[in-house]
Design goal:
Strands 1-2 form a two-stranded parallel sheet. α2 (29-48) runs parallel beside α6 (104-116), α12 packs antiparallel against α14 (237-259) and α14 (237-259) packs across α15 (273-293). Residues 301-313 have low confidence and may be disordered. The chain is mostly helical. It has helices at residues 8-16, 29-48, 63-81, 88-91, 94-98, 104-116, 126-136, 138-148, 153-173, 175-180, 188-193, 208-224, 228-235, 237-259, 273-293, and strands spanning 121-122, 183-184. It folds into 2 domains: 1-119, Orthogonal Bundle (Farnesyl Diphosphate Synthase), CATH 1.10.600.10; 120-316, Orthogonal Bundle (Farnesyl Diphosphate Synthase). It has 15 helices and 2 strands.
């Protein structure tokens, strides 16, 4: 049996603790409610996949218990699609699923990512990590676009770039915690390239080799966030502003990681509001300029979106300590 999930007030409290804005006050009551329902679901699924389920004392413990809960969540998600869900987290999604604004397949990928997390996790290459992000992060952005009624294929590609970047940043912030759970979300090939090992992730502070590895991941994430102005310009209005705010949170988090010399083992950087606002203004200005240059038909759809991984070649040079 699934434990009780986050109610709306609890979801709002948890959302405020995130580095990235979840539901802007300007979006209006209904869209805020829709986004908080999505956030409550994503947070609940991640909690079910956590090592100790600390948020839910009535749940079981251990890998088998977590897998059973995740499979139960998959069944309840299917029930939500038919309007028969009884669990509050899934019942809140039912209207969106039945209206076609959310897709069961999209939300199911979040469950698949957490099922994958129940074994010892390692990723050999950055491409492998991005494939994991397509399950663990990109569905959230795709669902947000669905809520906005703008889930065109090319916009989804832009969103995927941003969401994968935000996932990489979150992994950088949680390196030590994840390593303690035998989850290594930093490519092994990059660690070895700079002379670091998995043991470095369990140290009290980052070695020079590990910091150089983190620099590379941070540069890649920064590059992928470059999709934000185009997506914000294409969406326009409050949806575009929401996208700009998500990306601004990622840039601000990277600023803090850089300010701590890429050592996220000894301290977990916290986003400073002024940094976030500064990036938000910059992204929105770029989006506004880009929007004025777009042909009218591109404001509803476009024929091209940049392939974010292809822009990573210039990220390979990192400083030495």
């Amino acid at each position: 049996m699934l434990p009780q999930g986050l109610d709306a007030p609890a979801a709002r409290r948890r959302a405020k603790e995130e580095n990235f804005p979840v539901a802007l006050a300007l979006l209006g009551r209904q869209r805020r409610a829709d986004l908080l329902a999505l956030y409550g679901y994503a947070r609940f699924i991640d909690d079910l996949g956590d090592e100790d389920l600390e948020q839910y004392p009535d749940a079981g413990r251990g890998t088998e218990a977590r897998l059973a809960l995740l499979h139960a969540a998959r069944r309840e998600l299917a029930a939500a699609s038919t309007g028969s869900a009884t669990h509050a987290v899934f019942a809140a999604l039912a209207p969106l699923l039945q209206a076609g604004r959310l897709k069961e397949e999209t939300l199911s990928r979040l469950i698949e990512a957490n099922i994958a997390d129940q074994k010892e996790v390692r990723y050999e290459s950055f491409s492998d990590l991005l494939q994991y992000c397509s399950l663990s992060a990109n569905p959230v952005g795709e669902a947000v676009l669905g809520i906005f009624g703008r889930d065109e294929e090319d916009l989804v590609r832009l969103s995927d770039s941003i969401c994968s970047a935000l996932q990489v940043i979150e992994h950088l912030q949680d390196l030590g915690e994840d390593a303690g759970r035998q989850r290594f979300y930093i490519p092994s090939s990059d660690l070895f390239r700079f002379g670091a090992t998995l043991d470095d992730l369990s140290a009290p502070s980052a070695s020079p080799a590990l910091r150089r590895t983190v620099v590379l991941q941070a540069k890649r994430a920064r590059s992928m966030l470059g999709a934000a102005p185009e997506l914000a310009s294409r969406l326009g209005g409050l949806p575009g502003l929401a996208v700009a705010a998500f990306a601004a949170g990622g840039h601000a988090a990277l600023d803090e990681i850089e300010a701590h010399r890429f050592d996220t083992l000894s301290i977990q950087p916290k986003v400073r509001p002024l940094r976030l606002i500064s990036h938000l203004v910059g992204i929105w200005r770029s989006a506004s300029k880009m929007r004025r240059r777009l042909p009218p038909q591109w404001l509803a759809s476009s024929a091209h979106a940049p392939d974010a991984p292809g822009r990573l070649a210039s990220c390979d040079r990192v400083p030495r300590w």
